[in-house]
Amino acid sequence: RSQQPHSVIQRRLVEGNQSQLQGESPLVQALIHGQESRRKTSKTEIPALLVNCKCRDQELRVAVDTGTHHNQISTGCLSRLGLGKVLKAPGGGLAPGPPTQVEQLELQLGQETVACSAQVVDVESPEFCLGLQTLLSLKCCIDLERGVLRLRAPFPELPFLPLYQEPGQ
């Protein structure tokens, strides 16, 4: 258990021993350096593990977030996708006020389309988070060595975007 990637990274961060980074994959090294630099700055945190996907024919940068149970979508992303006004209340009518949940959201991961739901959150970054529930249902594997999010067959591997890439790059 203590040899799992997140435990190794966490232990090395606590120890502060950079010499132990030698031999680690570039992605693991970048994650550790990113964690250290985020501690020193008060900037808004940007998740380190981002993948590209599409929703309603628009590109999205999606965070892979095992610390969040449900998927999350930002209010800005919801508006950009044109979903703010099409949400329905449980009784079938239009929901009053700002939406809190999106159902049957179709995400295109590589060549495959996955239907999921997402909680609406009032933050702008990241615009969409894949939560643990969806990651488990897709039987995802976070492969830090190869720098990909691997989905169950026949789904593709999705490469992680470069760390701290600005939107539109």
UniProtKB/TrEMBL annotation:
Every Aspartic peptidase DDI1-type domain range: 45-143
Molecular functions per Gene Ontology: aspartic-type endopeptidase activity
Superkingdom field: Eukaryota
Listed InterPro entries: Peptidase_aspartic_DDI1-type, Peptidase_aspartic_dom_sf
BP terms from Gene Ontology: proteolysis
Keywords: Receptor
SUPFAM superfamilies, sorted: Acid proteases (SSF50630)
Protein name: Nuclear receptor-interacting protein 2
Species of origin: Leptonychotes weddellii (Weddell seal)
